[in-house]
Amino acid sequence: MAHCGISPTMARFAALLLLPVLIESVFSISFFLPVNSRKCLREEIHKDVLVTGEYDINDESNTKTNLKITDSSGHILYLKEDATKGKFAFTTEDYDMFEVCFESKSPMGSGRVPDQLVNLDMKHGVEAKNYEEIAKVEKLKPLEVELRRLEDLSESIVNDFAYMKRREEEMRDTNESTNTRVLYFSIFSMCCLIGLATWQVFYLRRFFKAKKLIE
């Protein structure tokens, strides 16, 4: 029976390579939200990516905090009024800039209510998937779960590189198109200047002839 395993050296090397990707997939932050104020966080996420999040807001009396997540078009992906603690999840439909906004409201005024502590933990891509649940549903062994995780991570890296390549091609096409337009505009400008100079020469020639300054 064949034995399949990964040497410690290869495992450490793979971990070093994948560490930056894993760090970018996790977004965790804590901050204080003053009463009657609004604070938004923005993050760019690729297309068809699962995004999960968990938030915990320090509860204060006479204070209501709303949580709203929108894309760049203003579409609401998640909305929770009087939010205190909970979770959210959504899947992106396109590469976009997403905005997570916390808004605090209180009739007491800003001087009487202390700031609220907000804890936000967001994950997307591979880190957002619950591989323990997948293992239970598909009855996977621990090694198979790790292989599934590595496969998903590899696919995410390939998609990132494909997106970067596509963006590079789009930028190159834009630069070439811009250069072509600038060239045509320069030629048009030169033709206009030559035409204007020629007209000025003939106009001055007729003027000087009318004044009998030249023959």
TrEMBL record:
One of its GO terms (cellular component) is endoplasmic reticulum membrane. The keyword Cytoplasm does not apply. The keyword Nucleotide-binding does not apply. The chain crosses the membrane at residues 182-204. Keywords: Endoplasmic reticulum, Membrane, Signal, Transmembrane, Transmembrane helix. Residues 38-189 form the GOLD domain. It is found in: Endoplasmic reticulum membrane; Membrane. It is a single-pass type I membrane protein. PANTHER family: TRANSMEMBRANE EMP24 DOMAIN-CONTAINING PROTEIN (PTHR22811). Belongs to the EMP24/GP25L family. This is GOLD domain-containing protein. It comes from Oncorhynchus mykiss. The gene is LOC110529272.
